[in-house]
Amino acid sequence: MTQIDWYLKQCDITQYVLRNSAVFQGELATHMDDKIRLIVVAKQQPTQKIYYDILKAIELTEEQVLFLTPSQLIIPANEVKIVTWFIDVNTDEPWQNNLTINTSDLDSLAKDPQQKRKLWQQLCNYENHFHPERK
């Protein structure tokens, strides 16, 4: 035990150890496996039936979807080559790219036929991105 450790213990100060200091240096990035075909950005992991129905309709499994909260999305838009679906999240203008889908919350989406139709058209446009092996 170092002298500093001893003083902290005497003062009843809990000492914390930072396990991954690279986070503060900007060296940590979200690893995207080659099997990832869709990034979903939402405040909480979607659990609604419509979400699972959409994945089933576009023939993706949960293992092929990377879920991120808005604070976890630290990748610049120009570096993302995967369709990114923002669910009830306002995106910054610079983040938008040609592979971005924006929808309202899933409960509202489930009740609005026009929103569902628009989403389905976008998903159909990106079919080759979901299944590149079918080209």
CATH class: Alpha Beta
Distance between the termini: 62 Å
Taken in chain order, the helices and strands follow as HEHEEEHHH
* CATH architecture annotation: 3-Layer(aba) Sandwich
Mean pLDDT: 84
> Residue ranges: pLDDT <50 for 5 or more in a row?
none
Strand order of the largest sheet: 2-1-3-4
CATH topology: Rossmann fold
Helical coverage, percent range: 25-40%
CA-based gyration radius: 20 Å
How many domains, as an integer? Answer: 1
Count the beta strands: 4
Can you say what the CATH homologous superfamily is? Answer: DNA polymerase III, psi subunit
* Individual helix count: 5
Task: Summarize the structure in short.
By secondary structure, the protein is of the alpha/beta class.
List the SSEs and their pairings.
Blueprint: H1 3-10, E1 38-41, H2 49-57, E2 65-68, E3 83-87, E4 100-103, H3 106-111, H4 113-125, H5 127-130
Parallel strand pairs: 1-2, 1-3, 3-4
Give an overview of the whole structure.
- This protein has 135 residues and is an alpha/beta fold.
- It has a single domain (31-134), classed as DNA polymerase III, psi subunit (Rossmann fold, 3-Layer(aba) Sandwich), CATH 3.40.50.
- It has helices spanning 3-10, 49-57, 106-111, 113-125, 127-130; strands at 38-41, 65-68, 83-87, 100-103.
- Strands 2-1-3-4 form a four-stranded parallel sheet, with helices on one face.
- Helix 2 links the parallel strand 1 (38-41) and strand 2.
- The N and C termini lie far apart (62 Å).
